[in-house]
Task: inverse folding
């Protein structure tokens, strides 16, 4: 029997799924029975550890794990917390993931109001107050913390204060920030926080999780689901009654990988140490890419330490040769790195993530290949055009979880 070569052919510089450690991948080599007490204990431990990471008082907060990508968790929260007859949600939008919550609300026929700004802009508190004054039926407010369309980091603390002031239920999509930045969920006055296994906690895809304040959770979600499978309350009740059992088949291998990922978070020094690594990765990346001649899309004040968007230049920096993203992508992939196409509305762009099992040495090595790409830009223009047409990359990937 041939031995498995478990060394990945490239590192993922993406917002998730992302590169994981060998030991996280190795944890999935084992099979588990969903009814087994050992497995259920792992689930119970994960739920407890997530509350600890969020700095929650366990008397007032609980956690629900939900099969599927992060978007399944977001849709479960919207579908279970909003009563069509009693409630209305205000959704803040400055990117694709805010728009996705709007689309979910439309499909679920949930009463909603939208406050949308350009994807390189933050939300204006005065405008937000005005919208709330003009729409007194609003009961919920939802926002994306790190909008990975651009790498924008929204001010969830100020927004949370306003939501609390107005006595609104506060929902935060923290998909791409939880585990990579320090959180105090009670200080931020969040009622429902959603994230997933394959982001900053460095597990693999398979499930999302919701950290929620117990009182509004039970009050809002009991008998209010719009879907059988995405019924948060029933899922939580099953996990509470049967010490970690899921209602339907759970992603056992993803759970085992996540258990290992949480151990590695602790070994690294916790959230503070991981956040410092991500910040250093992003600092090196931004400095190196701008030095190479690429322009960041966002100003530093709005930039997260998770992923950065760069404006696609017309020409390869320091060259008269046209820049083609497909050629750039395939060159980097051939040299061990995968980056991400852009999603901003009005400019061609591309994105580079710096989370996951990535370290400053990896970023430095990546930047050396970017520089080499620029230096090797010596083909005649027509040859580059033909090469770009022959190389393929999915320019419109399904947005991650």
Result:
């Amino acid at each position: 029997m041939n031995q498995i070569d478990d060394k990945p052919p490239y590192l993922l510089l993406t917002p998730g799924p992302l590169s994981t450690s060998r030991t996280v991948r190795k944890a999935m080599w084992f099979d588990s029975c969903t009814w087994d007490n050992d497995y259920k204990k792992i689930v119970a431990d994960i739920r407890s550890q997530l509350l600890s990471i969020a700095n929650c008082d366990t008397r007032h907060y609980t956690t629900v794990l939900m099969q599927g990508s992060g978007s399944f968790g977001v849709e479960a929260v919207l579908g279970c917390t909003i009563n069509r007859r009693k409630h209305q949600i205000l959704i803040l939008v400055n990117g694709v993931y805010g728009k996705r919550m709007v689309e979910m609300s439309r499909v679920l026929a949930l009463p909603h109001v939208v406050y949308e700004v350009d994807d390189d802009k933050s939300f204006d508190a005065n405008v937000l107050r005005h919208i709330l004054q003009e729409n007194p039926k609003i009961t919920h407010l939802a926002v994306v913390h790190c909008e990975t369309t651009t790498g924008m980091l929204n001010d969830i603390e100020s927004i949370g204060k306003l939501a609390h002031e107005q006595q609104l239920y506060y929902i935060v999509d923290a998909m791409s920030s939880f585990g990579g930045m320090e959180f105090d969920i009670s200080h931020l006055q969040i009622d429902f926080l959603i994230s997933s296994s394959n982001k900053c906690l460095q597990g693999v895809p398979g499930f999302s999780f919701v950290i929620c304040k117990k009182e509004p959770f039970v009050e809002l979600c009991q008998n209010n689901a719009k879907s059988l499978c995405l019924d948060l309350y029933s899922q939580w009740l099953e996990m509470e009654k049967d010490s970690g059992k899921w209602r339907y088949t759970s992603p056992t291998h993803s759970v085992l990988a996540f258990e290992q990922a949480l151990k590695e978070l602790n070994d690294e020094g916790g959230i503070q140490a991981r956040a410092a690594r991500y910040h250093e990765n992003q600092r090196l990346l931004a400095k190196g890419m701008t030095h190479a001649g690429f322009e960041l899309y966002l100003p530093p004040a709005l930039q997260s330490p998770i992923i950065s968007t760069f404006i696609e230049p017309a020409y390869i920096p320091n060259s008269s040769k046209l820049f083609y993203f497909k050629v750039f992508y395939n060159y980097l992939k051939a040299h061990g790195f995968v980056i991400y196409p852009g999603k901003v509305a009005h400019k061609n762009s591309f994105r580079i993530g710096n989370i996951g099992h990535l370290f400053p040495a990896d970023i430095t090595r990546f930047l050396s290949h970017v520089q080499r790409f620029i230096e090797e830009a010596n083909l005649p223009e027509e040859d580059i055009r033909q090469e770009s047409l022959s190389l393929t990359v999915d320019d419109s990937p399904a947005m991650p979880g």
In short: Residues 265 and 273 are 9 Å apart (CA to CA). The chain has 13 helices and 15 strands. The chain has two domains: 24-268, 270-390. The first strand starts at residue 11 and ends at 12.
